[in-house]
From TrEMBL:
Residues 192-213 have a biased composition (Polar residues). This is Transcriptional regulator. Residues 189-213 are annotated as: Disordered. The lineage of its organism: Bacteria, Pseudomonadati, Bacteroidota, Flavobacteriia, Flavobacteriales.
């Protein structure tokens, strides 16, 4: 059993929530439900949970959403989640203490969040910086500049969204798909041209060259 100050812990964890851009209301609702079950278990070092009970407490209606959020809370070091495939035993949870904003756990998580934020900025690939970056990419793939310009103008015009709806995550991957499709179109046009030339060389009638013109 751990010595946990109920008020200080909630104050500390909600302070952390306010700074963590990764969380959404479902994560917070799930954490509060787990905290309440932890409290009911007198703040044991580890305790078992029942998925239906946790979903009812947290008002989560989807099993996939529940599993996604609890795994993310574990990955982000708010809890440790030990999943179980035994319906009679239930999964096991370990909660971290958040009694002060200057505690070691908070410092560690803050550093982790800042690192992720920096990496996200460095590896931002939802759209290129400018047309020149696209041209350089297409040149590396040994494709003409005109194709790079067509790609850039097309997606620039629709806000870098696939089909004008879904936001692009990695423009370079989208560019490679563009190149693949362009290659397929080029091959089809070549095959069509060859086929037409072959048809033109064929005659469907037996011509009698003894007949006058």
């Amino acid at each position: 059993m751990q010595n946990v100050n109920f008020i200080k812990h909630l104050k500390g964890v909600f302070y952390q929530f306010s700074k963590d851009y990764r969380l959404n209301p479902t994560h917070i609702s799930l954490y509060v439900a787990l905290f309440q079950i932890w409290n009911n278990n007198r703040f044991l070092e580890e305790f078992y949970i029942n998925r239906e009970e946790v979903m009812r407490f947290s008002k989560i209606g989807s099993k996939s959403t529940y599993h996604k959020c609890i795994k993310e809370l574990s990955h982000w070091k708010y809890i440790i989640y030990y999943p179980s495939h035994n319906p009679y035993k239930g999964s096991k949870i370990k909660m971290f203490k958040f009694e002060t904003s200057t505690g070691q756990a908070l410092v560690s998580i803050n550093k982790h969040i800042q690192t992720n934020r920096n990496n996200k900025n460095i590896n931002k690939l939802d759209q290129p910086k400018n047309e020149k970056e696209v041209v350089v990419f297409f040149e590396k793939e040994k494709w003409p500049i005109i194709e790079a310009q067509k790609f850039f103008n097309h997606y620039q015009g629709i806000g870098w969204k696939v089909g004008g709806k879904t936001k692009i995550v990695n423009w370079q991957a989208t560019a490679k798909n563009w190149i693949i499709k362009a290659e397929e179109i080029k091959n089809k046009e070549t095959q069509k041209s060859v086929s037409q030339n072959q048809d033109n060389l064929k005659t469907s009638k037996n011509k009698n060259y003894n007949e006058p013109l």
